[in-house]
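As noted in the main text, all predictions were made from sequence alone. Below is one such record, for Serine/threonine-protein kinase 32B-like.
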Amino acid sequence: LVNNQAFVICQSLFDNYGMSQLSKCILHRLVNQVFVICQSLFDNYGMSQLSKCILHRDIKPDNILLDENGHAHITDFNTAIILGDGELATSMSGTKPYMAPEVFDCALDRCLGYTFPADWWSLGVCCYEMLCAA
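Prediction:
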């Protein structure tokens, strides 16, 4: 399934930007690797019972490590908190370029708090950086 998703994204990029055959090959491999890393994080972080109550709050490339098999692992849980059912995080914690909009909204008293989608936003920013080589 990963290869199919990577192919669809790459084909769209090729059609829009008229890339050479070599660029297509390199981009396809890059997109595929991003999917593999995200899948590894989802398997290691997103599926366990414990992670369903932990809000990391500082997902960024510096806190994602790859092991010798290429599996991604999240590190640096110093700003993480455990949220119970219905609880919201309210403090502004993490690294600003990777923070979800709701974290800023909470700091400005525009919302009551935030939960786990804030971590998924941060992971999305990391994926965007990997794809754009930022």
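The chain has one domain: 2-132. The CA atoms of residues 11 and 17 lie 10 Å apart. These features were considered when defining construct boundaries for the mutagenesis experiments described in Section 2.9.
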